[in-house]
Amino acid sequence: MKKILTYLSLSILLTNASMAQSWFDGQCDLENEVSNESLASSKENNTLNILLNQEGDLLINTLKSNGLSEIKFKELVYNFIMNPAKDKTKASSPKQAIVSIGTYNKENSYVIMLNYIREVYLYEWDKQAQEKYNSSYQDLSCKNRKKIRDKIPYQVIELDKGKTKPKMIMGVPSFKGDVIDN
């Protein structure tokens, strides 16, 4: 029953939050810019790597995870960041959780998944705002939003963000008869 209520409240919140965001609403800066160095130096359990490969497969920490529903994907991200079960294979704390997301030419799916990740953060920030200020995150001042983000920082690194990948030009492969050995 608790899971059903969580799903329901998450869906309602995310629907409302998505209408108001342009990541997030442009009023306050999200200070935490995650660098490649931070990603490389973090412990393995504190990093969630999400990749859409060339075949369109979803890889989460190198494991194929096709067929995840929106809710299952969001639960996976939430459980990684917040780690309510204190699983040693997930983030030690929200402050140490880093989510990296990348793609190989699957931009539409990438944008959808990035929005799902952002919605997970918004969900938890709103929950914290309700507990601490009895208000929604959206209605808080930048100062109070920062207090919440200090506890649960937005640490998402978008791999290859803004870079255009070079196009591969394939030539005719060589055949054994095409090469003359001396």
Tell me the fraction of residues in β-strands, as a range: 5-15%
Specify the helix fraction band.
40-55%
Q: How much is the average pLDDT?
A: 79
End-to-end gap: 76 Å
Low-confidence stretches: 1-22, 164-171
The largest sheet has its strands arranged as 3-2-1-4-5
Number of helices: 5
Major beta sheet summary: 5 strands, mixed
Order of helices and strands: HHEEEHEHHE
Structural class: alpha/beta
Report the C-alpha radius of gyration, rounded: 20 Å
Tell me the total number of β-strands.
5
* Inertia-based shape: globular
Task: Describe the 3D structure.
The protein is α/β, with parallel strands linked by helices and 182 residues long. The protein has a domain at 33-159. It is 41% helix and 11% strand. A five-stranded mixed beta sheet has the order 3-2-1-4-5, covered by helices on one side. Strand 2 and strand 3 form a beta hairpin. Helix 1 crosses helix 4 and helix 3 (70-82) packs across helix 4. The radius of gyration is 20 Å and the shape is globular. The relative contact order is 0.16.
